[in-house]
Amino acid sequence: EAARKLFAGEVDFLKGVVAMDGLPPDNRIEVCFAGRSNVGKSSLINALTGRKGLARASNTPGRTQEINFFTLGAERYLVDLPGYGFANAPVNVVQAWQALLKAYLAGRVSLRRAFVLIDARHGIKAVDEEILTLLDRSAVTFQAVLTKADKVKEKDRAKVLEQVRTRLAKHPAAYPEIVLTSSEKGDGIATLRAIIAGLG
Ligand code: GDP
User: Fold this and answer.
1) Which of 32, 99, 139, 166 is most buried, most CB within 10 Å of its CB?
2) Does pLDDT of 10 surpass 60?
3) What average pLDDT does this structure show over 16-27?
């Protein structure tokens, strides 16, 4: 009920941040979303908030990498981190992204949880391990959210869940519950809303 109310209320884009001095005040309950580009991060944020077009896919390597802040109700931020793992991203873009991300994760006192999006067809890949390690080092509790569950046959789900579970066990900052979602079909959206509403 709290989750329903929260997500039925105001959600607005606040700002895109390219440097640490652009961050909004660190005074709201904050959760962030990370994931390889094309994992379905924008679709998930749009499904969660029920606002189509709120988060836009930034599928252009070399494009300015912004951390996008959304206000959720009066006391929360949803934070959309830049997608990673572009095959042909210029080195300077990757380095700038890593530096900003590191600084953000290390310095954000109100950050309660990071949701790391993982394609349910592929499980955790080498490219994801980098951010999981960074989250460990920053002591930011993270939770794996599997995306595009509708693209995985029922009989193949257990195997992916097992792979993800095994990988997570190696990460001290991992929260054990894995959320299986489909932005297309709506699976897991209510669960994720409840998790976000429950963080205080
Ligand atoms: P982003 O780059 O991580 O923001 O990814 P997008 O949200 O733009 O999604 C990338 C592609 O995956 C798009 O073509 C989406 O339509 C598709 N997609 C995203 N979520 C789902 C889902 O739950 N199910 C299916 N079948 N496709 C999805």
Assistant:
1) 32
2) yes
3) 94
What is the rounded radius of gyration, in angstroms, for the C-alpha atoms of the chain? 16
190: CATH: 3.40.50.300
Distance 159 CA to ligand 1 centre (A): 22
Residue 200 tokens, joined:
């205080």
φ and ψ of 98, to 5 deg: -65, -40
- Reduce the DSSP state of residue 93 to 3 states and report it: helix
- Residue 168 — pLDDT band, cuts 50, 70, 90? very high
Domain range enclosing 109: 2-198
Q: Which residues of 71-89 are buried (b: 16+ CB within 10 A; e: fewer)?
A: bbbeebbbbbbbbbbbeeb
CA 154 vs CA 26, 39, 118, 158, 177: distances in Å? 41, 20, 17, 8, 19
Cα of 21 vs centre of ligand 1, distance in Å, is 31
Q: Among 37, 41, 43, say which to mutate for ligand 1: greatest number of ligand atoms within 8 Å of CB.
A: 43
Answer yes or no: is the ipTM higher than 0.85: yes
User: Cα–Cα distances in Å, from 137 out to 40, 79, 140, 142, 166?
Assistant: 26, 20, 8, 12, 19
Predicted TM-score (pTM) of the model is 0.96
Per-residue pLDDT of 149-163, as tens digits, reads: 999 999 999 999 999
* Total number of domains in the chain: 1
